[in-house]
Amino acid sequence: MANQKSQAPTGLTPRGQFWHQQIRRWSKSGLTQVEYCLREDLSLAAFRWWKWHLGQQDPSWPPTSCGGAMVKPRLLPVRLIPSPSLSPTSSESVFEVVLKSGYRIRVPADFRAADLRRLIEAVEGPRC
Fold first, then answer.
1. Residue 17 CB: number of other CB atoms within 10 A?
2. Does the pTM exceed 0.85?
């Protein structure tokens, strides 16, 4: 059984085998999907589609450091830092969230948490 998990399932096309291997390598890399795709020069959209597609065939797919379980995205504590690029006289309050990947997201003070969660997941993908 362990040998079976280290190889792509039989019956996959060469393209499917390629993506199976890439997703397995990503799961061991500790990188976000965005970081891994940038590093490997892969299409993020194709990566996510193949991850979903392979998961439709095998519910325990993809392998993750979380044991393959589906992980609900969660927000992490943030520290608010005044942004020098924002005018101190501006009447509109804005929060800037700096993600671990280095991306910065600016949201209005009246943002909806569900929208911010969806945006973070779209940028970085679900995390353990």
1. 15
2. no
How long is the chain?
A: 128
Of 35, 57, 79, the domain-final residue: 57
Element (H, E) at 116: helix 113-124
Judge whether 63 lies within some domain: no
Distance from the Cα of residue 67 to its chain's centroid: 16
Q: How many domains does the chain have?
A: 2
48-102: per-residue pLDDT in tens? 999 888 888 776 666 654 444 444 455 666 666 665 655 555 556 778 888 777 7
Q: How many CA atoms lie within 13 A of 20 on its CB side?
A: 20
